[in-house]
Amino acid sequence: MGHGWEGVVLKLMRGKDFTFTVTGAEQVTEHYRRVHLTDGGLLAAAGVHPTMWVRLWFEDGGKPHQRAYTLVDPDPASGTFSLEFALHDGAASRWARTCAPGDTIEATLQGTGFTAPEPRPERLLVIGDAASLPAVNSLLDAVPGVPATLWFETAHDSDEDLPIRLDPDLHEVRRVPRERGGAALVERVKAELPALTGSDPYVWIACDTATTRTLGTYVRKELALPKERVHSLGYWRAA
User: Fold this and answer.
1) Hey, what domains does the chain have and what are their CATH numbers?
2) CA atoms within 13 A on the CB side of 158
3) 67-95 pLDDT, tens per residue?
4) Which residue, 192, 232, 225, 191, is CA-closest to 211?
5) More exposed terminus of the chain, fewer Cβ within 10 Å: N or C?
């Protein structure tokens, strides 16, 4: 499958292509699926960093369609990792539901880049959802021993069972049902986050694009947090 004009642009931006092979899959909840893969040489070539992601290529109506996914538990020694899919309608979810051991999928590494905050913050303030859960877990793993408050937007009752890697002695999760296109999450965060920003926090935001933009602007401009202590990236676009 060709990658169309997006693939050409990524090549010009020095994107590197790899082919992953499925080794298995498991249904985590009704709306969440984990797929296990071999890396096609990716980890040996690129190394690993927190919240590392790749662009997967799917066929959608005969056209190439790419979406980004965070690596889960990448293991350079074995050349393996997993990917987790918040299931909905679309080419990526169809593939995740039906892939079987031996299936392959093409991927491009371009655009990823994140370094754990230094100096270490006194607290992490994290805003995410099912789509960004693998990155949330990777971030928490990257800064062990740091207290964290997580506002986690949920879309389904089963999201209560998603595998958030919480240390009960350090991490607090505040679940917020998705309402009014993310407005409920914005209101909750604006009401609660300021009280936690007094002692050198690091704020990490990864929700739908509109919500992420709103909250990123809020913490930078209204709360005046330094830009190097704020990371925001929209993970999906609401239909």
Assistant:
1) 4-109 (2.40.30.10), 123-232 (3.40.50.80)
2) 9
3) 999 999 999 999 999 999 999 989 999 99
4) 232
5) C
